[in-house]
Known about the structure:
The structure holds two protein chains of two kinds. By secondary structure, chain A is an alpha/beta fold. Chain A has helices spanning 9-15, 33-50, 56-63, 80-85, 87-90, 95-101, 119-139, 157-164, 216-233; strands at 69-74, 109-114, 144-151, 169-175, 186-192, 203-209. In chain A, α7 packs across α9. The longest helix of chain A has 21 residues, at 119-139. In chain A, 49% of the residues are buried. Chain B is α/β, with parallel strands linked by helices. In chain B, the strands form four sheets. Chain B has a four-stranded parallel beta sheet, with helices on one face. In chain B, strands 6-7-8-9 form a four-stranded parallel beta sheet. A two-stranded antiparallel ribbon of chain B has the order 1-2. Chain B has helices at 9-14, 21-32, 38-41, 51-58, 62-65, 73-81, 87-93, 99-107, 111-120, 150-162, 179-195, 208-216, 232-237, 242-255, 273-276, 285-297, 319-335, 354-367, 390-400, 406-414, 432-435, and strands spanning 125-126, 130-131, 138-141, 169-172, 202-204, 224-227, 265-269, 303-307, 340-343, 371-374, 379-380, 385-386. Chains A and B meet through α1 and α2 of A and α1, α10 and α19 of B.
Amino acid sequence: MSNEITGTNPLTQLRSCTTARIFIGRTGNAIPLKQSLAFKLAHAHARDAVYSRLNVDVLTDKLKLFDLLLLHVHSQATNRQKYLQRPDYGRRLDDTSKAQLKGYCGEDIVIIIADGLSAEAVNENALGLLKILIPKFRAADLRVGCICLAEEGRVALGDDIGEGLNAGLSIMLIGERPGLSAADSMGVYLTYKPRPGLTDESRNCVSNIRKHGMSYKQAAEKIFYLVNEAFKRKLSGVALKDNEGLLDH
Amino acid sequence: MAKASPYRSGDVLAGVCAESYEERVAAQITLADVPLKTFLNEAIIPYETDEVTRLIMDSHDAIAFGPIGSFTIGEFRDWLLGDDADSAMLKSIAAGITPEMAAAVSKLMRNQDLIAVAKKCEIVTSFRNTIGLKGHFSTRLQPNHPTDDPKGVAASIIDGLLYGSGDACIGINPATDSPAAVLKLLNLIDKLRQQFDIPTQSCVLSHITTTLNLINQGAPVDLCFQSIGGTEQTNSSFGINLALIDEAYEATLSLNRGTAGRNVMYFETGQGSSLSANAHHGADQQTCETRAYAVARRYKPLLVNTVVGFIGPEYLYDGKQIIRAALEDHFCGKLLGLPMGVDVCYTNHAEADQDDMDNLLTLLGVAGCNFTMGIPGSDDIMLNYQSTSFHDALYLRKTLDLKPAPEFEKWLVRQGIMSENGEMLSINPSHKLLTGVI
């Protein structure tokens, strides 16, 4: 038997103040079935996102439009289970990938598309962002050396790649940890002079890029601003923050 | 020690885990014969370089240690499970037990043993109400909001109160640590508390330096919060040390806001924090965690909360590991005399779900856990993880016949939220908690 609070007025008002699951009622002391299943579905989306795979074939095909060198690399995490338990493996390239980078040059900027904790997020959002971002770079005479598709990658994998290609700066598009409200959120990390050993304080991050989150246009503007500042000031990370209202949105 | 620890991903990541099943059990067999006294003479992390080790060694109570002083760790385990180790006895020896002794003995215990012994420990604390009494179970109402919107926070608080949540405290994780934002939240809860005369305490879980500054500016701080770890280096990665906590503790005490008691600190811990800060000194994550309880114990806290599944699968991979870690933390904390609560929780990249949390919550209820979290529909929309819901606490109270903190229980009855015999009542939309906040 449902034992829900009846009537609407104050509840509707309070509900509109937050996206928290408030005033969901109870049956006995339990969460009513409809709410219980809605929660389960959100969790299922998040779980599926964690186990989603980078869509290498489709991305390779679509990225051709930029007429850039495309590389396909893999971290030392051989599978998802390893990836989840050993973040250190996800931060290093495997030997085949390392060898593959030899002979190529990252130029000013290397762009990396990595699965992270939600491949779905980059499968859906990477191309849309790059379509705005890459023309901006080209117009500003910033050379993009290549685009790397990276599997089982964590953010710091960009340091291994950036160093291997001797790139001036790395931009990593990566799937963020899925929440119950969004499983397809993409983050972009920017690192000046990427090399192994750097930590998060050396990077700038633009987060929550997705259909119902930050738009591609707004994200591209922020990233473009950060890239210019990074080259101008020869650094990235904490020291680059807070100088422009642009970052506070 | 590390090799005797039940398997968990964080110890593998640290490279301190046993390499085989046999090696683990062999390590446990060896550990069983080590005298408890050994831990008073041999430090796992050097005395000279670590202030937590110095705290442990220097505050050890030799008299309290007397009754167990001749035991090996194995004998200690057997004794803990026996009838001689009753509630009064366990209370009297708590100050004689070091974190390393507690961690070591827990490694020789099955989940059932951890529950049985923890159940015998009654750790009661108080501020505006009394938490931890036998037969009682409390919750921290956690009304987080992604932008600290006061109306959004207030809506979640009212929702929680109407489900009988919030006797451990009403505790908000602020989205930013800015003093102005924290002050706004402190004032918000304080106003609600006074408006409805709620016998509970508030806490905004900002960094201790932020809280200290706000205390000095006259902000209404009931409880002073801080995350703590088990090594000096871990704490320094949190931007704290013992001297700083000493100062904040004294400042909070001086406000004298408690009416039922003077326990003013709220600490959070969690296995894996030392390794995450690369400050574990080769020790396993459960031993590091237990050492954090020595830090907590110094300040007679109202609440200690091990946030067990928040850190992620690289430290605790799945439901089995999370459940084991929670029972260890709860047992070790209680044995050392701390008012332990557990954030029964998981992230979306851990191999865990609501069923695992149901199992853990039930086990902790049986073990006599002081409190868990209460979150609208289990979904924390600010921290993006899943913890226990207001409903979960009602389930536990009903199933195990547990009551809220006595002062809070009386308030719930007065408000028409709960009946005299503990049944939750239907709430009319004209209830003053609903109309009073709009």
